[in-house]
Amino acid sequence: MSALDNREIGWDEEISEERQDYEPLPPGVYTFKVHSMERARFAGSEKMGPCNMASLDLVVEDAEGKERHVFDSLYLHKKAEWKLSQFFLCIGQKKAGVPLTPNWNEVPCSQGKVELIINSYTDKNGNPKKNNRVSKYLPYEPKKFTAGSF
User: Residue 65: inside a domain, yes or no?
Assistant: First the structure.
């Protein structure tokens, strides 16, 4: 992202950029960085009761090296505890088989690998749409160092 793409627009500034049709990334494994995390509340559904929720904005790079955003939610509910563990294993905070009290302050800027799929849905206007959805977070891979190489 260039410096011009990452700046605030003034209240009285001219605008011209129009929304492009979103094209999802191809399914596959991507390295991600957590751009941001917001604490939120899930109102509940037929499948799961109300609970706290972490809304994640993940940044991955497409084939041209352009940053793309993928959004995911982590539900703080016993039914979704497996996904919490999967995420914290992925970013290296949790060790397999060892209980963890998450350090939520370290989530932004964390990195890991994620498997993305394409999700098909119908928007509120009845139009068919597609976006990326996290299929799973992959186990943490510590950096490997080889003597004599940089």
Answer: yes
> Tens of pLDDT along 81-92?
999 999 999 999
> Which of 94, 91, 90 minimizes the C-alpha distance to 136?
90
Residue found by looking up tokens 């939520």 in the block: 104
Question: What pTM does this model have?
Answer: 0.80
Q: Which H or E run contains 28?
A: strand 28-42
Is the model's pLDDT at 149 over the cut of 70?
no
Going by the DSSP 8-state scheme, the letter that residue 84 receives in this structure is H
pLDDT at 49 over 70: yes
The domain of 87 spans 22-138
Q: 127: part of which helix (H) or strand (E)?
A: none
φ and ψ at 100, to 5 degrees?
Answer: -140, 135
User: Half-sphere exposure (CA, 13 Å, Cβ side) for 17?
Assistant: 7
Angle at 47 between CA 41 and CA 53, to 5 degrees: 20
**Domain containing residue 100: CATH number:** 2.40.50
Question: In the structure encoding, which two tokens stand for residue 26, read together?
Answer: 């191809």
